[in-house]
Every structure is written in structure tokens, then in C-alpha cells.
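Long-time lurker. I teach an intro course on protein structure, and each term I like to show students one example going from raw sequence to a predicted 3D structure in C-alpha cell notation. This year I'd like something fresh instead of my usual example. Would anyone be willing to generate the C-alpha cells for the chain below so I can use it in lecture? Attribution to the forum is fine with me.
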Amino acid sequence: MPGRLFVGLAKAALPALVLLLAVHLVLIRPWALRWGATDEEAARAMTGDGIVQSPTFKATKAVEVGARPDQIWPWIVQMGVGRARFYSYDGIDNDGIASADRIIAECQHPQAGDLIPTTSDGGRGFRIKGFEPNRYMLWIATGASMLGIRARAEALARREATGGAGAPGPTR
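-- Reply from a regular --
Happy to contribute to a lecture. Here you go:
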């Protein structure tokens, strides 16, 4: 009897699960993969695009910031656990520790090969593959992530992030 009940419940729930999956694949995922990005930004080639040879996905996200690129850069280069954190939902992404609300001088001199830690023990994270101050920083782990800053007007910039998952190909 319990087996029949389970089969009955599974049959009843299956259409709802299929509908949820379809809504996610058709509406939510495409929106989430290019949150805030224009068609031109999503289509444009960006630094690091060729690192992951056959990415399982490509995401390009953007947000407009009411500041010049040179005002945004210091906040980007200090990101990481044990540093300024990730300017996110502190209770979820930052172990309940608040993100920095100031520029941290000792975090302002990134070098290619530096680790941007994502764990409190500093054992995992992204490696800085390359950067150009006030323009972009390319991080690499399993996939590649690029944080870019593009000026749009005198006092307005867009912070763009693109990434893809997969195994990195040969170093370029």
C-alpha cells in the first residue's frame, strides 16, 4: 500500500515539476545569465572569453554605478574572504561578516597570480590571471570570470561581469 501511495503522489507531482523546470529554463535562467546586460554587452567578446574552451554556459551581467572607473577600481581589487568580502548579502555569502565600507590600503596592489580567497581558510579561490587598472580584472578557477569596468559618461560607469564554467584550456 505505501508503494502505491508514493507512485500516486509522484504521478500527481510530475506535471508540476515539469512545468517548474520549463519555466526555469525558458524564463528564469536566460534572465539570470544576463542580468542587467544590454544585447550589445551580452554579445560582445570580453577579455578571457577564450580561456574556457567549451564552456557549459556564458553569463554576462552588468550594473550601472554612479561613479568613474577610477572610483570603482579600489573596491574591486580588495574583494575576497579575509579582505573586503564580496559586497553581497553578508548573512548568506559572507558568513555573517559585513563587507568593507572603506578602501583597504593593503589590498590595493593586485598582481597576476594572487589569490582572491573564497573560503575562510584561504585554501580556495580565484587566481588573478590578468588585469588593467580601471578597466578589468580576470579571475580564473575552474572556469573564468572577468570583472570589467567600462566608462559610459563623465561620472557614470558600468560594472560588467562575465563568466563561464568548464575546464580551462591551454594557457594563452
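Some talking points for your students: Residues 1-33 form one domain. The chain has two domains: 1-33, 36-164.
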